[in-house]
Amino acid sequence: xxxxxxxxxxxxEVVLIATYGQAFFVLGLxxxxxxxxxxxxxxxxxxxxxxxFGLIQAFVIxxxxxxxxxxxxxxxxxxxxxxxxxxxxxxxxxxxLLHFGLRLNWDxxxxxxxxxxxxxxxxxxxxxxxxxxxxxxxxxxxxxQVTRPLLxxxxxxxxxxxxxxxxxQVEAMGxxxxxxGWLRVAGLSFGAYGVFGGLLIPRNxxxxxxxxxxxxxxxVALPRFLAIAVLAWAMIQxxxxxxxxxxxxxxxxxxxxxxxxxxxRIGRELHDGTIQAIxxxxxxxxxxxxxxxxxxxxxxxxxxxxxxxxxxTIGDVRHYIFELRDSEGQLAETMGLxxxxxxxxxxxxxxxRLEGQLPRYPSEFRSHLLQLAREAVVNALRHxxxxxxxxxxxxxxxxxxxxxxxxxxxxxxxxxxRPGGQGVPNMRTRADxxxxxxxxxNRPGEGMMVExxxxxxxxxxSDNRARLSDPYEAPANIAG
Length: 480
What we know:
Low-confidence stretches: 459-480
Strand content: 5-15%
Radius of gyration: 34 Å
Order of helices and strands: HHHHHHHEEHHHHEHEEHEE
Number of strands: 7
Shape: elongated
Number of helices: 13
Largest sheet: 5 strands, mixed
Strand order of the largest sheet: 3-4-5-7-6
Oligomer: single chain
Mean pLDDT: 79
Distance between the termini: 49 Å
Structural class: alpha+beta
């Protein structure tokens, strides 16, 4: 069996090395694209070093295909120079991995200095060896025998421990648990790469090429490839955390904006109404005190008027208090909480977008709109096979627009309605109760869209909330 495997991998050497390098390239590129500087996690400050490690290692590995091809067109001295440059680039990749592992665990002044010191010493040693005409093959053998146990194994174990700590931080933040799970998978992948990439090293010149370093006929490139491929997929899934943090920040900004608007409105109403009324009652009481002896009847009338004015003012203050209590959990905030709940339950990527200014709505209105949004998102989760779902809440000058879109397979040929299904009829009923229009259809290209438009002039006010009484109670449950 071992000779068969050896011959199999030797015949497909170029394919194996190219695929091995591709795993590193995907890791570096995906991590770089998902990086967000604004994140509060220490992972965000460390991720660029992981991206650099992945991209650099990809080109180093592809160099094992590219450099041998140059022997036919370049002098041997230039080919040897390319091999030494390949080792310098490999050293840079290992240093970036070490920087990632150190930064993920400690944020001390010496943390960024140690990797560059290692890079400087390693570069000087490689340059000195090249000038002393050490054969590039022997130089690579000694280089990997030293740097892989010292740098790759150490850095990978530090990265594994750091990912474990990051998973604990994310869990404490209350973010979806599937992200915590992927961070732990990434930590295990780092550990596996530390073993296969740091401890399994060439022992002689014949094993310098990664395809020749094999156990039981299986080259060490294969388990290294598997470890990096799993790591790349885990990081792609886990780094969604940056987008979730950004969405939370946008939701917080929306809540703060609504709170500031409420404070300004209440301040104006208190200044223009309540304070002026109290000031007027005070003037009447002063007049009553000055005329109570000369004209008791007039003073008594002033007292009655001031008491009536104060009673009206108390009623206004109570109205403000009840209005504030009723506005707790405004639409933007409660919709964000709904998206977070569905995201955590499903483990899927659900994006929440908030645009424009949202008026104040009664609680019954919010309840119907939330149930409609829940039904639309759950339908997308159940039936669309979508990888991305976007819920958008947009306040325009004349209407409120709720949109749920996905990148799934779209509506079936028969349309959105299914015999026996209650989801779409319930959504249309809620749209009628809200005085809005509901449109369900396919998007141009792929996926489908549910759009709900409620004109502001038809938005139910507090004096006609009775028309919004819910004739049924059918909350959607994605677990079913």
